[in-house]
Design goal:
Length: about 240
Amino acid sequence: MPRGPPPQIRNLRRLRAFLHIRSSKMEALGGYPAKPCAPRARLLALLMSAAVCMGSLYLLHMKLAKSRKPRDFYSFEVKDAKGRAVSLEKYRGRVSLVVNVASHGQHAEQNYRALQELHRELGTSHFTVLAFPCAQYGGTEPGTSRDIEAFTKSAYGVTFPIFSKIRIMGAEAEPAFKFLTDSVQQMPKWNFCKFLVSADGQVMRFWRPEEPIEEIRQEATALVRNLILKKRSEL
């Protein structure tokens, strides 16, 4: 009886058959798989992808931050004496005199009465005083915001808005007030500094506490007059 091929030949045939089957399957799938990347190349690709993603996120963040940046005083939100959020947008279209106030300072009565007279004289349709209590100047505003509001109404007949107590100096400075001080490059040295803000929210002038109210009245009146004339021309 004839003997079969030796084991070496049989193994070689099996290997050829296996490779043939393997080749046929890969051709059916569209060719041989690509050679895997080296670990270093894969790491470099990952790092580059991460860098691109981080760069894109940073640019997006900067774009969003820029779009949210308040463009004027009336773009800010503050709190009223009861702690409720108030958008200063409600005062856009009016001239505002913004003041850091204190109820128990040496010149409190004189300033409050002068501010109330100006508020009444120029009319609330085109002008308003906006008062921000602050206790950072000599501790002359010790009460709560509600106490301050009630006291100024009863003692000085105040009808203009009294907002929540704020900080003007330091890291916790009220952003709306910081906008004022940054705009004029002036920091209040004491209570009753005054900032004149136009109807479109731009800071026009700054006065120290000792400067006469008559000068403030003249400039505020001129702004209000121009505002009225502008509104009439647009009718």
